[in-house]
């Protein structure tokens, strides 16, 4: 079924085998059949379409409201015999991480997905699930696993991208020839990492609930798959924790380097100030109104004073240069 007015796909499955695409108006009738479940995919649907599917699937109005507004936190909620899940998706597009949302309604004989924002198509998920009819025959629980597993798999390339960026920034930070202020880049990288972590961490609680509860919707034999997702999410979150600590350490180093550069500037200014102080002191002395000042009457007084000033400045310059102040 081609995407029209927000509908990406609407298919029915019996005993794990796709029996064909169906119309939205026929959903409630198809759901009455034995060993059949319906899988509907939507992309940024309008309010009218969501209200229609609310009637067809008997969905709760609060969940429909959340699915329509988007911008929800990742969560899992139970409305009678229906589960409502919110997942945050992350996809790598042109070396930039784009975030979106996927809302999932799961019942005993149906699965409804609503995508918002940037997210990869679930066409590959359908193909994968349809290639394993013996597992899909267990109901929409396996399709839910395939969806969540696909979303989690998108986190790893994003994590790899952030780690690659961090290594590049770290190399420039410790490069002897580098004098750039890396704080802004590290701050931006940390914000992206926190956004990815905020998408992944709630999945731990979601998968834990799916493992322990809702046996009437997710059969016991399907729960082992969610344990696999939990392991993948844990790896991503642990890598994010380690990287956040490294970014914090790198930001401290960058701050220290800024302070060191400022100290170097202050030292150079102080060194040049010391050199200027020598002639300033001498000329200030001669600018005073002395009545008797023998040097003023001496023929060689001016050349001698200038030589003393030049000699003192040269000696001071060499000593400051040797000390690293200039």
Q: Which fold name is given in CATH as the topology of the domain at 1-137?
A: Beta Polymerase, domain 2
CATH superfamily of the domain at 1-137: CorA soluble domain-like
Mean pLDDT: 81
Strand-pairing-aware structural class: alpha+beta
- From the 3D coordinates, which CATH architecture of the domain at 1-137 would you assign? 2-Layer Sandwich
Outline type = rod-shaped
Condensed summary:
The protein is an alpha+beta fold and 326 residues long. Helices cover 56% and strands 18% of the residues. The model has no long low-confidence stretch (mean pLDDT 81).
What does this structure look like?
This protein is of the alpha+beta class and 326 residues long. The protein contains 11 helices and 7 strands. It has helices at 27-30, 47-57, 61-69, 123-130, 133-136, 140-153, 155-173, 183-200, 202-212, 223-286, 301-322; strands at 7-14, 17-21, 36-43, 75-79, 82-93, 96-107, 110-117. β5 (82-93) and β6 form a beta hairpin. The longest helix has 64 residues, at 223-286.
């Amino acid at each position: 079924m081609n995407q029209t007015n927000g509908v990406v796909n609407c298919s029915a499955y019996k005993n794990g085998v796709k029996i064909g695409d169906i119309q939205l108006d026929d959903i409630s009738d198809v759901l009455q059949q034995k060993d059949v479940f319906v899988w509907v995919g939507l992309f940024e649907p309008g309010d009218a379409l969501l209200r229609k599917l609310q009637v067809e699937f008997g969905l709760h109005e609060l969940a429909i409201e959340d699915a329509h507004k988007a911008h929800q936190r990742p969560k899992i909620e139970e409305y009678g015999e229906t589960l409502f899940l919110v997942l945050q998706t992350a996809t790598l597009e042109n070396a930039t991480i784009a975030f979106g949302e996927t809302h999932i309604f799961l019942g005993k004989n149906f699965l409804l997905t609503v995508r918002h924002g940037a997210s990869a198509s679930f066409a590959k998920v359908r193909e994968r699930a349809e290639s394993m009819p013996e597992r899909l025959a267990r109901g929409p629980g396996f399709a839910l696993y395939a969806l969540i597993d696909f979303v989690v798999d998108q986190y790893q390339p994003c994590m790899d991208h952030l780690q690659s960026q961090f290594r590049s920034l770290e190399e420039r930070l410790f490069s002897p020839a580098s004098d750039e202020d890396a704080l802004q880049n590290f701050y931006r990288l940390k914000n992206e990492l926190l956004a990815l972590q905020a998408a992944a961490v709630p999945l731990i609680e979601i998968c834990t609930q799916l493992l322990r509860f809702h046996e009437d919707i997710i059969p016991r034999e399907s729960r082992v798959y969610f344990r696999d997702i939990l392991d993948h999410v844990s790896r991503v979150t642990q890598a994010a924790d380690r990287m956040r600590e490294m970014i914090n350490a790198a930001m401290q180093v960058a701050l220290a380097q800024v302070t060191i550069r400022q100290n170097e500037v202050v030292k150079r200014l102080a060194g040049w100030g010391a050199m200027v102080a020598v002639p300033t002191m001498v000329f200030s002395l001669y600018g005073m109104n002395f009545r008797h000042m023998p040097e003023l009457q001496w023929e060689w007084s001016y050349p001698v004073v200038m030589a003393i000033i030049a000699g003192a400045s040269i000696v001071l310059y060499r000593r400051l240069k040797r000390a690293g102040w200039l």
